[in-house]
Amino acid sequence: MLFFLLYISFSIGQEITLLDSTIFSDQLGDNLTARITSVNENIHIVWHTSYPEYRLYYTHSLDGGLTWSEYSIISIGSPCNFPQILAQSDTLHITWREYGDYNWMVKYIRSTDNGFNWEEPIQYSGVYSLGGPLFGSVSDKIYLLFQTSEFMNRKYLVKSFDRGSNWGEVDTINFDISESTTSFGFNSMNLENSNIHLVGSMNSAQTLGEGEIIYIGSSDDGMSFSSPTIISPIDGATSQKVVGKLDSELNLHTVWYDYQNSPNTLHGYILHRSLNYQGIWSSTHVITNEPTGQLPSIDIDDNRISVIYSDIRDTGFTNNSQEIYYNSSSDNGETWNDDIRISFMETYNNIYPDISISNYLLYSIWSSTIVGNDYQIILKPGVIDGIKGDINQDHQQNIFDIIIYVDRILGHENNIDNLYESWAVDLFEDNHINIQDIIILLNMILNIQ
Ligand SMILES: [Ca+2]
Ligand SMILES: [Ca+2]
Ligand SMILES: [Ca+2]
């Protein structure tokens, strides 16, 4: 119940208070590819196991991470992996790849009550699904994209305009790529208005034989798509695993890891480029201090771009002991802070990080070999730029906070309602909002002045 383990303060405007970790999976076997999403205080997590049994798990917290539900089993018995989760208010969508009928197929399932109950899954079978299916959404629209091996240039798109109540036919899209292409796939899809933004990677004669990062857009809701634009340095050094996210001004931010100038064959610098709403690409920015990163994930709140990735800088390449690092930019990705380590278990391996941010809280999640050699899911929340006592979340300790404290106490609403309150509001650390907290806050305010 206590969340006050560690307070770490960083210079250069990057301040995260890391809170207590939660270990989600108590099963034997490897728990992998966890994905997380959050809407205000509602946090949702999905992940898969492959041993001793194939399972797809889901859990949620409706109080910002203070308490968590029992695990729901979304799928069991068949190999399943690469889940994605997306929330549209209380409506949740999960898609994943599952083996059945001698083929990998795409499956989709929905909940309209925040994950308490799940509808019958939909499956797109008869396809050999390459990698995982992808979601994109804006307002009530949600699109599902998946890829198969039958034709190099062919992908499939399914659309819903009512949060998944009704889905259209599967549209076949034949992308305009050169004959020399030997691999072509997407890692993320973003929607806004009638625009679709796809980012992924491609191998062709054009990329000097190594994978490079590509962007493909549609401005007519998927009726037609542009040819690929290569956005990573075309230099023979492989660029991989791009992810993209739109900010509130509709600039698309992309990050990937790049072997350019890296002595490590599977790790590199994490690079950033953005496509502004006028269709102009920024220059390329280096996020990391070392060429040791891998598998970035991105989220954006208040136009702060946050990126998380696994990194071997602390232990070296041979030890298979990656840590999880975080970095952020508050100026559209032009400049980045010094990246910081948010994992703390140096003798373990930490992989598949993902991140979601809401209400001043950063939720980072990854798989870690904390129990024997099996991977378990770790959630590590952190408060970004948090200020103690700031109950009204205006980034100051002030009289308004005191008023709200008094209101809550007089109204007998002195319970700690969420994870943010347990850190910022309950200064006396007794799990209630009370007069002792006000006294501490007053002392803090008076000492500052
Ligand atoms: Ca390259
Ligand atoms: Ca305040
Ligand atoms: Ca208290």
Structural class: mainly beta
| Architecture per CATH nomenclature, i.e. the level-2 architecture of the largest domain | 6 Propeller
Helix content: under 10%
What ranges have pLDDT less than 50 throughout 5 or more consecutive residues? 1-13
Number of separate domains: 2
Overall number of strands:
29
| Largest sheet: number of strands, sense, barrel closure | 5 strands, antiparallel
Q: How does the overall form come out from the CA principal axes?
A: globular
The top-level CATH class of the largest domain is Mainly Beta
First-last Cα distance: 33 Å
What CATH calls the topology of the largest domain is: Neuraminidase
Which hetero compounds are present in the coordinates?
Answer: calcium ion
Over all CA atoms, what is the radius of gyration?
A: 22 Å
Mean pLDDT level: 91
Describe the structure.
It is a single chain. The protein is mainly beta and 449 residues long. Helices cover 7% and strands 44% of the residues. Strand 23 (293-301) and strand 24 (304-311) form a beta hairpin. The longest helix has 14 residues, at 435-448.
Could you provide a short overview of the structure?
This protein has 449 residues and is mainly β. It has helices at residues 399-410, 419-425, 435-448; strands at 16-18, 22-23, 31-39, 42-49, 55-61, 72-76, 80-88, 91-100, 103-111, 122-124, 134-138, 141-147, 154-160, 171-174, 183-192, 195-203, 212-218, 229-230, 239-246, 252-258, 269-275, 285-286, 293-301, 304-311, 323-329, 340-341, 350-358, 361-371, 374-384.
